[in-house]
Write a structure and sequence with these properties.
Number of domains: 2
Membrane topology: Multi-pass membrane protein
Helix content: 55-70%
Order of helices and strands: HHHHHHHHHHHEEEEEHEEEHHEHEHEHEE
CATH superfamily of the largest domain: ABC transporter type 1, transmembrane domain
CATH topology of the largest domain: ABC transporter transmembrane region fold
Largest sheet: 6 strands, mixed
Organism: Corynebacterium flavescens
Shape: elongated
CATH architecture of the largest domain: Up-down Bundle
CATH class of the largest domain: Mainly Alpha
Radius of gyration: 33 Å
InterPro entries: AAA+_ATPase, ABC1_TM_dom, ABC1_TM_sf, ABC_transporter-like_ATP-bd, P-loop_NTPase, Type_1_exporter
GO molecular function: ABC-type transporter activity; ATP binding; ATP hydrolysis activity
Keywords: ATP-binding, Membrane, Nucleotide-binding, Transmembrane, Transmembrane helix
Number of helices: 17
Amino acid sequence: MAAPVDPALLRLVPPVRRLIVRTGAFQALSTVLVMARGVLIGTVAATVITRTALGYTPPDSVSWLGDSRIMVLLLILCAVVLAHACVAGVARREQSRAVGASVDKLREATLTALGHRDPREVEEEAGRWRHVLSRGMEDFRPYLSQFLPALIAACISTPAALATIAYFDWVSAVFALVTLPLIPVFMILIGTLTAQHTRRRLEVTAGLGQQLADLVGGAPTLRALRRTEQPQANVSLLGERHTAATLGVLRLAFLSSFALEFIATLSVALVAVSIGLRLVAGTIELLPALVVLIIVPEVFNPVRTVGSSYHAAADGMESAQAALHLIAEPQQMRGGYRELTSGGGISVRGLSISGRDGIRPSNLNLQALPGELVVLAGPNGAGKSSVLLALLGQLPDAAVEGSLALPADISYLPPTPSLLPGTVENNLELWGAQPARIAAASRQIPLDVPLEREVSATGSGLSAGQRERVGIVRALARPARCFLLDEPTAHLSPALVEDVLRVARSRADEGATVLIASHDPRVLAVADRVYTLEGEDSAHT
């Protein structure tokens, strides 16, 4: 981020503002208690040593523990220590809650912003956003839980400690004030280099994640072709590259932490040497000398913590910055080219969709009536999926020309069905799929997986074919008037393809409109009509 606290973060993620306010309040109270603790410890120690700091010398026969004034100071010190422990405990608990709420809100806002972007662009950057929303958001927690509190402490505790030291000994305050800027200077020098390494690591990690996802997605095909040796070598190479990128950042973090620790220790030592020499010369009393020695680390500790926690939060800051830039972008108007009708058919007139590869398709005319099974065919990259996304109203208005009319009640099957953490049964019941229709569809299209099996959002626990069948059953079990199916037979065996086409035909026979995007000859053979897309031209067969 350009600033320690990005204004966009405060504006777009409200829980962060509450986190800063609460952290500042707890830090101010904690600072008062720490200063009081230091003064009390110094006063008690000086009184015990000299027995004159309070202007009272007890008789020789009375132990210093019998001095009522010292006992009062010790009781006050115990109360201050207990109060500081309570404040620290409550602060950690509230901070943990606020950090969780902030991360959840940022992730939610990022997902919402991605939902308003062109899904084709999101798919192209899937590896990057997968990393930002998963590992990147977790890496952002140290920024909120470590760096931000340290920054607030540096703004509150350091000036308070300097003021307390100046009250007792202005010479020590001058020494501390002169040496204090050394830490920020080294922080800036090392931080600039760290930011470059972190940005490079984010790019490498996102790319590795996308490559690994591609390898995992193609694993069933590679296993069927008995070509698993090379993917294994590729996975090992990806792991080595990730290790090298991560270790580079860690080495730099360890080096910077050592430098900051050395500078802070040296600064405290300079103040301590000055006080020691003046104690020997008799130019400073023991009480202010002890108080200053106890409090002076509080001048440097917060600033040093800012530097060390910066490296722990660097990865998360890069991910958060990418998310904030996405959230701050103006939302793209979508679906304005559609007309939702009371009928059940689909009508497309003069549809042209622009993208990074040009206009695909161009000037498409298509019609699908209730009771028909219509196929949109063509090679990969011809624009079949883009047509379905346009029918769903997911593409930006600026990318679509033409008119589309279709019913509002649509059931959609994407090329890769999405899953949520839970059981297979939970995933089948998503988005309004009816249990009775699920049972009927699953009898016609065997899932070959127990309904109680737990699955993750990434599909672990299911093969590619099982995941596809879950998506197909879920899509066909909705009581919709229009079914849009994108490559429903891509990962299925020949027997299952026949089952899927039989159920799709039954939905058409029930009066629904079924539009399938596919280049599978088996799908084309059962279609009532086929619209073929070829490059930038659209043809009707």
